[in-house]
Structures are given as structure tokens and as C-alpha cells.
Design a protein that fits this description.
121 residues; four-stranded antiparallel beta sheet; 4 helices; 8 strands; 26% helix
Length: 121
């Protein structure tokens, strides 16, 4: 149940009873990605919600072709135990950034349908 305690430290899961959160943890799949893997691309629609549990990920903005002055670059570096792309996952909005593993990473992944069902319950 250590992961349940870890998740309770994230604002998204604060205030959720441990036994209820444990049910969500059961729905998560552990997925490993090698360094260099693109976890999601700007413009994609989220199909899953992920929590980084090991490794590092960089969140990058792409330059916009219709805005030549908009520079591409690193927006944020994320280390373990952090949600990835939660805004797109929870709102259905297209992703505005790209996430790329900068080391070997491990994530907990759950489908959007299962995540939203969890919050509805």
C-alpha cells in the first residue's frame, strides 16, 4: 500500500479515502519506457492518465508554425511521483506539450474511462 500513501501526497488525490484510492491503484498498469521515448505529443487527445514513478521526463513546447516568434523548448522537467498530462486527461483538451523520457522511466497508467469512473464513484 506504499503507492497509495505516495498518491495521497499529490493534490489530485488528497482527501480520497485510502480504501477507495487502493481500488484505482488496482486499475493502474506499470509501464516501462526507455530513455528517449515520447510519451505523448502536442495535439494528441489523451487516452490515458499516467503517473511518473521512476525516472525523469521533460515537457517541451513546440514552436508554432503560425507564430514564428514562438520558441520551442523545455517548459518543465519532471521527476518521479508526478502526474503526466493530467490536464488533457481530465478535460479532454488536446495536449499542448510533448513529454519525452530523458532517462529510463516507469509510469502507472490507467485509461481515461477508468479514471473518470473512479472520480464519479
Amino acid at each position: 500500500m506504499a503507492i497509495v500513501q505516495d498518491l495521497l501526497s499529490l493534490p489530485l488525490f488528497q482527501g480520497i479515502p485510502e480504501d477507495h484510492l487502493a481500488k484505482l491503484v488496482d486499475a493502474f498498469k506499470v509501464i516501462k519506457h526507455p530513455s528517449g521515448t515520447v510519451l505523448f505529443e502536442a495535439g494528441e487527445t489523451a487516452t490515458k492518465f499516467e503517473i511518473l514513478t521512476k525516472g525523469e521526463v521533460v515537457i517541451e513546447e513546440k514552436s508554432s508554425s503560425d507564430k514564428p516568434s514562438a520558441a520551442a523548448g523545455t517548459r518543465l522537467e519532471i521527476k518521479n511521483l508526478a502526474p503526466l498530462g493530467e490536464l488533457g486527461a481530465l478535460t479532454g483538451l488536446p495536449r499542448s506539450t510533448t513529454a519525452k523520457a530523458t532517462s529510463d522511466v516507469e509510469v502507472l497508467s490507467v485509461s481515461i474511462k477508468d479514471l473518470l469512473g473512479f472520480f464519479d464513484a
